Amino acid sequence: MSNAELAIALLGACQKRGIMVATAESCTGGLIIAALTDIAGSSAVVDRGFITYSNEAKMEMLGVSAATLDAHGAVSRETVLEMAAGALAHSRASLSLAVTGIAGPGGGSADKPIGLVWFGIALAGRPEVAERQLFGHKGRELIRHETVRHALQLGLRALD
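Above: the chain sequence. Below: its structure as tokens.
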């Protein structure tokens, strides 16, 4: 399925369940919320998107703790879980998709290479879930595209 088809499927799944969705995005810079809002009628289930590129934005908009960022960094399981929870807490959504990663071409390290992305999914009434993906050093555009795809797929799985 294309990203557009995945977005349509996710919007339909949300509509069927009568829930709204929000995103908390770092490395994608709003591409996930854009994929959703590209679909006509998406306003019925899309609440908002948080573009939290900086650590300050993660703290101010989503309530990610400075202690988490200091201890684990922006690209970590702990941070993405707080991003996902924060998106629910600061919206009317019952489902949130959160992503933080290193799209490149710079910024990677041995511990956190280019292409590393953490995904967080929060569904009201359930514990947040995090998943790590390593897309490899395949170029910024491909990493961001694949991050959008994977986030939409995770959202669909969460609603199954």
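The chain has a mean pLDDT of 97.
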